[in-house]
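Q: Hi! First time doing this. I have a protein sequence and I read that you can turn it into a structure. Is that right? Here it is:
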Amino acid sequence: MHQLDRQILHIAIPSIVSNITVPLLGLVDLAIVGHLGATAYIGAISLGGMLFNVIYWIFTFLRMGSSGLTAQAYGCNDKTEAALLLTRSLLLAFSISALLLLAQVPLFRLATAVMQPSADILSHLRTYYSICIWGTPPSLGLLALSGWFLGMQDSRSPMLVAILQNVSNIVASLLFVYGCGMKVEGVALGTLIAQYFGFLIALAIYLVRYRHIRRLVVWSRVPNRSDLLKLFKVNRDIFFRTCCLVSVFLFFTSAGSWQDDTILATNTLLMEFYILFSYIMDGFAFAGEAVGGKFYGAHDPDNFRATVRRLFRWGAVMVVIFTAVYTLAGGAIIRLLTNVPEVVDLSSEYAAWTWVLPLVGVAAFVWDGIFIGVTASRQMLLSSAISTAVFFMAYFLLFPTLANHALWLAFILFMLARGLSQTVMYRVAPPRF
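A: Yes, that's right. Below is the predicted 3D structure, encoded as structure tokens:
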């Protein structure tokens, strides 16, 4: 195996393992409350989980910005700058957390106004939210640390943290619910404890494994104006880029619910095909951030371009595998996920859209990783804005004639537009070394 392939897989495989632990945790939480005897518990956990997922997704710039800039510092062997980047990212994470905690009441009112839960669910949702909101400091701090680890070419530390955090969450939730007789508050407390546990593990890894780097922090350089402006610029662009993506995915779910419950259930299940593919491709995107950013920082254009080519080769392999699985076994996967006859029948009508998802989506994942590695955040924002506009234009123009097929076609065009626009940007204005 080529040395570059080994470097890519060294980052990608642990990142994929970390990603896969995320849905497992949500399923366990739902399984716990699903045996408490009331559907309101399930609704509260589902809505609460969605709310915090959106919050943390919006602030993923803390991971992405930290990853790209740190990889560049690693590539040029600037350990002092790497140490300063983590310090600045953590200070930014904790500042945002403080604002979220101060605004927790209006934030909850806004969220419930949008979601409009029933009175029973609202009561349990408020309990869940009032506990889990205090987990924002460690969660956002962990985003910054995880991005920094990736930038330092270390994807095993985030994997270890993710596994231990999720195991602790499961154990704590089971203990509180079945050992202490709690209900939604038990699951929330389990999540809160796991968030702090995960952050403390990551912090301990940094303090012990990277003690030679943390000692290089020069506190007088932390508030350096030009460095802070660079960090804020990258994070600002990624923040608005993420807002574009969030708007598409939230609208996709909402548009299904506006039609009827069967279509909503069908769209939700079929979207799992995209989510599974994204978990795998995100691993290669993370490799693009770390390995691509390293060679960019080292001013090594030959290895950088070779990394881009090899990432697309790995992407092509994933496209062949996932397209074959979805085409040949998609129906069986659906029947594993549900036994509701009308959902199974309707899924077959829309199954073809899942067959093309890997092909049209692969470029967006690879380019995201590369662009983050070279901190081309403005191009990422522009491509996301263009593709989001394509999504909404296609949906509103085609829905009167194609109905729910218009929603899926709009999503396919959205992914295709992301990849194509980033390809054009890379060709027209490639990174300068």
